């Protein structure tokens, strides 16, 4: 992938937080990009700056449905298919769990078929959630995980695990050249203000002087990766020619408790907010940190943006976007949605 490369990349989920940054990075490298998105959690705003970009196409479609004819009938022949389509925030993916599971299973199957049909290389955006509430720390790719298969997170975790299984079946059968990224918590500009994940929640609450919500004691940990670092890793994974065929962790090993994260944001913003404690969601993982030895060795990749810098850029983003743009309503994907709270606290 270089400036002269006029290859076409399909980015499913390209209107979302990570997908829109990936789209920008691919265009900057000279590729054409076709984004497929159903705008369930994605936003037109994330792509508005590409309205007059001749190398960019947007298809409003659900990946569960067969890919649009212009992709399957050969008028557009992609070299790369990135599958990022799937709501990633717990309240959003739990709002319509059936659709979330089908997105990962049926949607991934549809996109694997598209890659097989066109000869494109395929990348599945998987997740650290395949490790569940991990009993091994930090998490290496060889760890099989500790996932509750019938809890409220299962629609996401088990969907992503099934998507990995499908991807590796296509790979073993030599039907598709495929790669799997296990992405750890990523943050940055273009997260939705109502995304529900911890970084966007804490920043938007602090900026508004609202109470800052910590779920549980706040002693649980995560390791936060800035979106620019992640996108570099996704492209490195898609384009490497090494003889490595396993899943690859992409994340920042810098582990921090949720309470410490909140305290840092409070200090950076100088807010009058108070920190308040709310019940811990069911099956909330207690700790998470990637072992990125494989990414370092195979991709020569590691994160570069320190948390303080990434948070400053994200705070700057949320300070500058108009509330209306950041809080466009979620589009109901298909069926009846439960409220986020009904799901977050639902017993399994
Ligand atoms: P996001 O919710 O901002 O983006 C997901 C995009 O997929 C949205 O634009 C949404 O509208 C679209 N989408 C959802 N279901 C779809 C469907 N059935 N058909 C078509 N489009 C659909 O989330 P994100 O943070 O940008 O995550 C992108 C990908 O990375 C997801 O697959 C997610 O599971 C994975 N991931 C993200 C993180 C993270 O911390 N951001 C961590 C682990 C994995
Ligand atoms: N969390 C929190 N306050 C919030 C949102 C989330 O304390 O307003 C916690 C959540 O319970 C979890 C951690 O922060 O322990 C990360 O949550 P997030 O939804 O960002 O990601 P995930 O749980 O998928 O890692």
Shape: globular
Estimated radius of gyration: 19 Å
Average pLDDT level: 92
Order the strands across the largest sheet as they lie in space: 3-2-1-4-5-6-11
Q: Total domains, how many? A: 1
Give the strand tally. 13
Q: Structural class of the helices, strands and pairings?
A: alpha/beta
Contiguous uncertain segments of 5+ residues: 323-330, 332-348
Heterogens: nicotinamide-adenine-dinucleotide, uridine-5'-diphosphate
What is the name of the CATH superfamily?
NAD(P)-binding Rossmann-like Domain
Q: What is the string of helix and strand elements?
A: EHEEHEHHEHEEHEEEHEEHEHHHH
Instruction: Enter the CATH topology name.
Output: Rossmann fold
CATH class: Alpha Beta
* Biggest sheet architecture: 7 strands, parallel
Helical coverage, percent range: 25-40%
Number of helices: 12
**How much of the residues is beta strand, in percent?**
15-25%
CATH architecture assignment:
3-Layer(aba) Sandwich
Distance linking N and C termini = 45 Å
Walk me through the topology.
Blueprint: E1 8-12, H1 17-28, E2 32-37, E3 56-60, H2 69-72, E4 80-83, H3 90-95, H4 97-118, E5 121-127, H5 154-172, E6 178-183, E7 186-187, H6 198-207, E8 212-215, E9 221-223, E10 225-226, H7 227-239, E11 248-250, E12 255-257, H8 258-269, E13 275-278, H9 293-299, H10 307-320, H11 323-326, H12 340-344
Parallel strand pairs: 1-2, 1-4, 2-3, 4-5, 5-6, 6-11, 7-10, 8-13
Antiparallel strand pairs: 9-12
């Amino acid at each position: 992938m270089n400036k002269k490369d006029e290859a076409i990349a399909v980015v499913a989920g390209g209107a979302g937080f990570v997908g829109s940054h990936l789209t920008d990075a691919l265009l900057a490298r000279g590729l054409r990009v076709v984004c497929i998105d159903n705008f369930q959690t994605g936003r037109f705003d994330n792509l508005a700056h590409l309205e007059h970009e001749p190398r960019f196409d947007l298809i409003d479609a659900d990946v569960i449905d067969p890919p649009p004819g212009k992709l399957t009938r050969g008028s557009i022949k992609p070299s790369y298919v990135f599958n990022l389509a799937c709501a990633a925030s717990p309240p959003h993916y739990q709002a319509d769990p059936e659709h979330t599971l089908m997105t990962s299973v049926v949607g991934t199957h549809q996109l694997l078929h598209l890659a097989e049909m066109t000869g494109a290389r395929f990348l599945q955006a998987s997740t650290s959630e395949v490790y569940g509430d991990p009993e091994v720390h930090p998490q290496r790719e060889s760890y099989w995980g500790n996932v509750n298969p019938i809890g409220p997170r299962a629609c996401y975790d088990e969907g992503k695990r099934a998507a990995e299984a499908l991807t590796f079946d296509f790979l073993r059968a030599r039907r598709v050249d495929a790669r799997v990224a296990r992405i750890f918590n990523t943050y940055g500009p273009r997260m939705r203000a109502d995304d529900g994940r911890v970084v966007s929640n804490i920043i938007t609450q602090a900026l508004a002087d609202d109470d800052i919500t910590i779920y549980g004691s706040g002693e649980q940990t995560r390791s936060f990766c800035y979106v620019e670092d992640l996108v570099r890793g996704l492209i490195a994974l898609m384009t490497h020619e090494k003889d490595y065929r396993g899943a690859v962790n992409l994340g920042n090993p810098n582990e921090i408790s949720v309470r410490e994260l909140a305290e840092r944001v409070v200090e950076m913003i100088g807010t009058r907010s108070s920190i308040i404690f709310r019940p811990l969601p069911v099956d909330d993982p207690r700790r998470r940190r990637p072992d990125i030895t494989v990414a370092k060795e195979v991709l020569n990749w590691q994160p570069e943006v320190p948390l303080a810098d990434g948070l400053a850029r994200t705070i700057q983003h949320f300070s500058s976007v108009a509330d209306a743009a950041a809080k466009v309503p979620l589009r109901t994907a298909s069926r009846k949605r439960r409220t986020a709270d009904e799901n977050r606290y639902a017993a399994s």
